[in-house]
């Protein structure tokens, strides 16, 4: 599928209800499945990635259904899962594969997790090694999917992650819940902490000090109501759209502003963005606020160090913002981008250069010189939802028409993206 984008005749205006948070939706289904009793999820994200988790849990014997617009999960408890009759397809979803591997390592049966072509290229050694240290039998193919897991008794370990990763941390927290003794996990920098927050919401005790967490095995989870906030990673595309398209003012209600996820708001603030945050509140243990964004003159910034894991998914759209910012933007310490759904550093440099951007690719990031007038081009989404959306937003400020090829991948996280853009900007050419 192609998405054709052109600069709107006026700014992005009005209110956009951004889809629900992908990370939190995965976790609500998984912890709901592991809990005793019923979990009711309000504002669940129905996207391809989260559907992969839903299908895998059903294959493991969890009953998940709808009541009105809510999703209802009937938990089976920590060890009430049944052996799946076929391999479970995780599609494009690293979150599904890495978190479920922790759950499956502690079950009393064998299972297999598979991925699509992109997921099959992603590194799994980072979960295989610590799960083996806990006593699990888990095989990949040269450290990549598919993963064949023979579940069994686990013991707690102390593990320090080489790279900050919420998926790895979450995998080990769930394995730790199923293990005998205490599991301690330390990260080099803080990654998103949704699993820790949700474990507590479901009644578990997790101790946290800075970037280290410990969990005792055998704690029971109790089914709860979970209301999912709007996804800050999806909101970020509209935020940057409103910042760079002249004459914009956009209201984005109920966006998750968890400090372990909201690094992009901090960096954009440093770049001179007008983003007003109102009605701060807490929903199911997660900080939430309404954001109002208006067109701003941006300047370049340095994005490196500890903030990187807190905005890792927003780097594609921050690179687009950087093309319109005055001066140099340096993005460093972000080599992880090379092992996401695609090599995001290479993909961004290649595609944004087609539009006239000045980008120098670095092993762990990029240098963007701005502001550059962009021109419409035929771009490729590289099968990566966030690359496809970032290029579509760049098209809003490019001279002429931009065609983004392969935009069906956007359904991985932001179903209705095109309609949301049309809602805010009007139809193409208007
Ligand atoms: C996610 C964690 C991050 C992020 C991904 C979602 C999660 O991945 O990039 O989109 O929901 O836990 P890593 O754990 O690989 O950093």
The radius of gyration is 21 Å
Helix content, binned percent? 25-40%
- Structural class of the helix and strand makeup? alpha/beta
Q: What is the count of helical runs?
A: 12
Beta strands, count: 25
The order of strands across the largest sheet is 2-15-17-16
Give the SSE map.
Elements: E1 2-5, E2 13-15, H1 22-34, E3 36-42, H2 48-59, E4 63-67, E5 70-76, E6 88-89, H3 94-105, E7 110-114, H4 125-133, E8 137-141, E9 144-150, E10 158-160, H5 166-178, E11 182-186, H6 194-201, E12 206-209, E13 212-216, E14 225-227, H7 232-244, E15 249-256, H8 263-270, E16 274-283, E17 286-294, E18 302-303, H9 315-323, E19 327-331, H10 344-354, E20 358-362, E21 365-370, E22 374-375, E23 378-380, H11 385-395, E24 398-399, E25 402-405, H12 417-425
Parallel strand pairs: 2-15, 3-14, 6-7, 10-11, 18-19, 22-24, 23-25
Antiparallel strand pairs: 1-25, 3-5, 4-5, 7-9, 8-9, 11-13, 12-13, 15-17, 16-17, 19-21, 20-21
The protein binds shikimate-3-phosphate (S3P).
Shikimate-3-phosphate (S3P) is lined by residues 23, 94-95, 165-168, 170, 191-192, 312-313.
